[in-house]
Write a structure and sequence with these properties.
Blueprint: E1 3-7, E2 10-13, E3 18-25, E4 33-39, E5 46-51, E6 57-59, E7 67-72, E8 77-82, E9 91-98, E10 113-114, E11 118-123
Parallel strand pairs: 2-11
Antiparallel strand pairs: 1-3, 3-8, 4-5, 4-9, 5-6, 7-8, 9-10, 9-11
């Protein structure tokens, strides 16, 4: 059974940095495509960053230049380095995976497997 578990969330002041991790278990090979999404109560889930099977990266405009997505295939772990955090980055962050795929984009319908989320709270 494939499972995704996020870690690294927390509370931080604006301007600070956090790194989220997402460990994929239950899949014996490296995961082709992965991504980070976030959601605040009352709003739709939005794509933050994705990486596809060729290593192509996509970022939402609002995080471009501040966030960095990376994937360690040997560890089947996805990371999101978040710098210069803003209060508007406050959200529940979800890891997503599509085990076998070509390309993905910042839309949740590309992904089959999801973690339970990690809360990130940025204060002024």
């Amino acid at each position: 059974q494939v499972e995704l578990v996020e870690s690294g969330g927390g509370s931080i002041q604006a301007g600070g940095s956090l790194r989220l991790s997402c460990l994929v278990s239950g899949w014996p090979k490296s995961v082709d495509c992965m991504g980070w999404f976030r959601q605040v109560p009352g709003k739709e889930r939005e794509g933050v960053a994705t990486v596809d099977s060729d290593g192509n990266l996509r970022y939402a405009d609002v995080v471009q230049g501040r966030f960095t997505i990376s994937k360690d295939n040997a560890k089947n772990t996805l990371y999101l380095e978040m710098n210069s955090l803003k209060p508007t980055d406050t959200a529940m962050y979800y890891c997503a995976a599509e085990l076998s795929c070509g390309t993905v984009d910042l839309y949740d319908f590309y992904f089959t497997y999801w973690g339970r989320g990690a809360q990130v709270t940025v204060s002024t």
